[in-house]
Amino acid sequence: MTHLSYEEMSRQRALAEARYTRRSIVGGGLRAVGGLAATGALGTLLSACGGDSSSAGGAADGGGGTIREIGLSLTEDPRIFGPAQKELGIKIEGKSDNLGNQITFWQQNYRQFDDNQLNFNQLGAIQETIRPVPVREISAWNDQVMPLFREPGHPGYNERSGWPIAGTYTREAVQSRRYDVFQAVPTWFGFDAFGYLEGQAKGDLKSYGAIFDPANKGHATLINEPITSVMKVATYLEGSGRAQLEGPINNLTKRDLAVVFRFLGQLKDAGQFRLFWSDFGQLVDLLTAGEVWIGDFWASAVAAAVEGGARAVFVNNPTEGSNGWIQGVAISKQAKDYDAVVKYIDWSLERGVVGGILGVQGYYSPRPDSAQKALEQQDAPSGDGNAWEYWYEGAQPDERPSLESRLENVADWQAYPDEFQEYSRLWTEFTAA
Amino acid sequence: MPVSVRTLPTPAGATERAPAGPDHAAQLRLQARRRRRETALLLAPALLWVLVAVALPLAMVVWVSFWRADGATLVHTFDLDTWSGVVGSGAFRSIGVQTLKVVAIVLAVVATVGLLCGYFLARFVRSKRTATLLLMLAILPFWTSYVIRIITWQPLFGNRGVLNWLLLELGLIDQPASAFLYNETAMICAMASLYVVFVIGPVYWALSRIDDDVIAASRSLGASAWKTFWKIEFPLAKGGLVAGCFFAAIFLFGDYATEQLIGGGTNPALSGTIRAIAGSGQWPTAAALSVCLLAMTAIVLGIFMKIHDLRREL
Predict the structure, then answer these.
(1) Which residue in the set B154, B182, B266 is minimally distant from A431, CB to CB?
(2) In the CATH scheme, what is the homologous superfamily, with its name and number, of domain A194-320+409-432?
(3) Domains in chain A: boundaries
(4) Rounded to a whole number, what is the distance in Å from the CA of B167 to chain A's nearest CA?
(5) Residue of chain B whose alpha carbon sits nearest to that of A221
(6) pLDDT computed for residue B6 by the predictor
(7) Which positions of chain A have pLDDT values less than 50?
(8) Which residues of B touch A101 (CB under 8 A)?
(9) SS3 of residue B231 by DSSP
(10) Closest CA to B190 of B232, B147, B227
């Protein structure tokens, strides 16, 4: 799932519009053909011939290396790529995609890429294509990294699912309790919850229950995507004591799924849902037009709707807990330039550029010390104090609680469920019912 | 002055007696071979294009439908797992039925409205210029992008839209009604408005080609206006009507944005389901559903061809 700021989305739209001029289509086509010939086809040919494609790269870029990356648009931000390339002397070729395409595209093409900047809820789907990374090779992964990501038991850790540790390290590293090999390296994270329109939505507006409250019948919504929607509903059902689930809420069993979808089906039959939303821009429009009152909104869309004049509120710490998510870097099994990716990961964690840019959009760095340096130099949105105090420390807790309180409130972390196909099948049935 | 077929000059040589003999037979065979070669050469670019742009991608889709998705990993195999899942799924069947239902309703609406509008333009607007102007106005929305045409429904029929404002001002309602957007009726209306122009144009064209004398003859022989329409105008306009519905059906089967933006995603059609499923990485299921959608579309188009052979219009 893409988590985009309004500015980012606007930039994306502008870029998308500019991209399709006649000249750029011709140019893009030529570049694509050239690129395919240079990397894709050659890489495929080498792999098909059994050639070892993990040789040292960097000849073409002056010695620093080249990274061929796939990610979300947020991680392909030129404000991040620019300084990274300059300071590290490496070349980064990025390709951004949406979640589903990102998984499928990666599955088919990982041989032609060095890394995938992804939501860790995709890791379960691409295990066979990624190269584990020994922790000792990431020098920025030091004592300054939040303990939450280093070992179990710290605030935010979920006993039942084992996340975020279970998502961060390989199964062997977790079982041996050494936590010494990454599946993927976390570089930023955040929390999903819900939002509403003030003055319209009714009921207990601290709880997800308000989304399912008949008082909001015909005005509620959920995102049209199974993993995150189902997890929200499970968070509510278990957190409110309405159901006891077998699996962790980020990895439900078939029996749990039957419970969740029975609940959802009854609500849909009763006309609870106005619609199922599917993208950032659509959600902002729906909120500013007052078409929906309550739902599993993204914080960034709520912020954009407020800018557009809507009295929208994002509930940071719902009664039943938020759903955490982690973004980070997974390295391709056939990365040509492993060292360049490692350098880039270190830079992302330590330099503070990523923490600074994503911090003011409401997201966090596993190395808060590096983000702090960047954020202290910026003002808080309210103009009262600096951005670090506002976004991390909870200087204005009504608007933005502290990271500490959010970690205490997290119900679980988004993961790729073992029963994904069942999630998808039941979601299709539910929307079609 | 129409020229009678009988007065047309006979093609040169056609009446000449063909000389017999082995030389002539060989010459004829040579000519026939040359003609076949020329035909093949002339057809080659088009055939090549159809092969590359249509046949190969379609074959690829069919091939992928026999793969298997193991979690998010695509297993390049040849088995019937995906197909048995798709055929055995009640959800996909009901989505298929829902798709057909919506297409049938929208086609009925666009056929009726398109016929009425085309008839009005051809019979009640005397000036050709005005008729052309009105036809251009009907096509005008097509000068903007498809998405913009759909999105304009929101300021018209949304909570804060023109219709709600009007009803509130007239005192007919005291709260904005949410019945005009994000439901099946709204979706059908939006689709009908999008695709009706496909019918108006061809129907107008077909009706305007009917000689006024034919209509006058019918009326002077005592046929009522209705009988004239039903026995003369409608059969002659049928080609335009079927052609319009034919193209509207192609677009309707593939339309997934209206379902999402106006229908609210709560009444998914097969096209939207394919998009969602492909988006979650399950290519084999999406491919199998695409084959089903293609088959449904082909059957409906086949029915249209049975009703009226559009090749006769070419």
Answers:
(1) B266
(2) Periplasmic binding protein-like II (3.40.190.10)
(3) 57-190+325-399, 194-320+409-432
(4) 17
(5) B264
(6) 45
(7) 1-60, 62
(8) 279, 281
(9) helix
(10) B147
